[in-house]
Design a protein that fits this description.
Length: 273
């Protein structure tokens, strides 16, 4: 709990120092995560479980991905396509993005309070459709030649998938855990590695290019996410799918530590913008 509160304070200090007021929403997101952490312990103490607090934390992280991912995914894609002179650049941030984020926030808030209500299913389905359309506007299909860019689109794709699976779960069509794992193992896990690898290369002065080891890391985390979702949907195959998910997940993050640990220990070269 002190870590999250301290992190919110550090972000707030940087926002104020740089007068970058639009990033105050990040302070709010981390503060909500801190509140959900506190609520988790209180709810578990009072009720023996912490379902509401857990959904609050997951919903906050999904919304954070929608906010930050909506900034970096089209930006990095646009920069790469511009260098390739490929044309067909991602759509700029506009009213559609604001509507999508608002609809997603409303759907997540309803899901946190009433996860199985029919109205929740409708809102989640609408948010999932809007998020899928938003992702399609970022020209990800044009970035197949650059894994560092493509993986951002693949990772973000788990956001609408999670919304749609949770919508189906609200109508008791699939287990609720399928959507949760799409958001957590899929979106959060993949986007975390995508950003860590890119930032590690850029801030240590290396070329922004995905090595074979980096591409293997990406493949492993995506396999882990898909296997974990499949384990929730295909219960007859749950045991081997869970084992595959665990091994692939561990391999992805261990691979990052092995491949990027030495880069982060050395004195950096001049950083790449």
């Amino acid at each position: 709990m002190p870590f999250l509160l301290t992190l919110a304070g550090v972000i707030a200090r940087e926002v104020v120092a740089g007068r970058n007021w639009r990033n105050l929403k990040l302070v709010a997101m981390v503060s909500i995560l801190a509140a959900s952490n506190i609520a988790f312990h209180l709810e578990a103490f009072a009720r023996g479980s912490a379902e509401y607090a857990t959904r609050l934390a997951i919903g906050t992280l999904v919304l954070l991905l929608a906010l930050v991912g909506g900034r970096i995914v089209p930006s990095f894609t646009r920069n790469w396509l511009a260098r390739q002179r490929a044309g067909g650049l991602p759509a700029p941030f506009g009213h559609f993005d604001k509507i999508t984020i608002a609809a997603s926030a409303a759907a997540l808030a309803t899901w946190i309070a009433l996860p199985t209500a029919p109205a929740t299913g409708v809102l989640l389905g609408l948010a999932g459709a809007l998020q899928a359309a938003r992702l399609a506007r970022w020209a990800g299909y044009r970035s197949a030649g650059e894994p560092l860019v493509l993986i951002l689109h693949v990772g973000y794709a788990f956001v609408p998938i999670g919304f749609l699976l949770q919508a189906a779960a609200a109508f008791d069509l699939v287990p609720a855990t399928a959507g949760i794992h799409a958001w957590t193992a899929g979106a959060i896990g993949t986007m975390t590695l995508a950003v860590m690898t890119r930032a590690s290369l850029g801030h240590t002065g290396h070329d922004l290019a995905a090595s074979a080891a980096t591409q293997l890391i990406y493949a492993l985390v995506v396999v882990a996410a898909l296997a974990r979702i499949a384990a929730a949907l295909a219960t007859a195959w749950a045991a081997p799918l869970l084992e595959l998910a665990a091994l692939a997940w561990a391999g992805a993050f261990l691979g990052f530590a092995i491949s990027y640990g030495p880069l982060l220990w050395r004195r950096p070269k001049q950083a790449v913008a």
